[in-house]
Each structure stands twice: as structure tokens, then as C-alpha cells.
Write a sequence for this structure.
């Protein structure tokens, strides 16, 4: 997607990747969204909570709760602190799939991280 930027001397950043991931999400292209998130690492673009949240949202919209949880786990492994939106979106994915046990586990992780749950999720 961003290959044509090289000839223009433009370099994609976290904001441009996150926008592309969000666009994929809106079109139901969750696999492409995950590809873009992975491509950020390949292109040495730092992945933020926002980029992960956009990918988690894409997974949630496509009922891919396992991938949503996997992205939260990857954030922790990379020492990127998941924010409220990341947790809430992943919990929503679990709830849509009837995986209440997983949603409760994520709620517990939020509490351990000293995040107060809100009514968004």
C-alpha cells in the first residue's frame, strides 16, 4: 500500500498506518488491517496504542475475538501499554462471541493495570 511513497520521498508514519488500518476495518478487511500492523514493524514504524486499537477494532468488527486478544498480548510483550479503548474493544469482541470468561479475564487485567472500567465497552 505504501510502496509508492518511496518515489515521492514520503515516509509512512504511525498516523498514516493507523488511518489505513481504520479504513480497512470500515470495509471489513480485518486481515489486511493485521497485515498493515505487521508491516509497521517491518518498516520500522513504531506501533502505538492507537494503531493496535484500530487493528483490535477491525478484529472485533469481524468477530475475530482470538486475534483481538492476541493483539493485546502482543502489546504487553512489546511493552506497549494497552489503553482503555484497546481493552474495551477486545472485551466487546469477546462479548459478541459469547466468550464472557475471556471478557472477565480482560476486565481483571484492566483492574491490575489500575484502569477504571467505564461504560464505553
Amino acid at each position: 500500500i505504501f510502496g509508492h511513497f518511496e518515489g515521492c520521498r514520503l515516509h509512512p508514519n504511525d498516523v498514516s498506518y493507523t488511518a489505513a488500518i481504520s479504513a480497512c476495518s470500515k470495509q471489513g478487511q480485518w486481515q489486511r488491517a493485521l497485515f498493515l500492523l505487521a508491516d509497521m514493524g517491518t518498516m520500522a514504524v513504531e506501533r502505538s496504542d492507537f494503531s493496535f486499537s484500530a487493528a483490535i477494532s477491525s478484529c472485533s468488527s469481524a468477530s475475530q475475538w482470538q486475534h483481538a486478544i492476541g493483539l493485546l498480548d502482543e502489546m504487553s510483550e512489546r511493552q506497549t501499554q494497552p489503553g482503555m479503548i484497546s481493552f474495551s474493544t477486545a472485551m466487546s469482541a469477546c462479548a459478541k462471541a459469547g466468550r464472557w470468561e475471556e471478557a472477565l479475564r480482560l476486565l481483571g487485567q484492566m483492574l491490575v493495570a489500575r484502569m477504571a472500567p467505564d461504560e464505553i465497552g
User: Anything to note?
Assistant: The mean pLDDT is 87. DSSP finds six helices and no strands in the chain. The two ends are 31 Å apart (CA to CA).
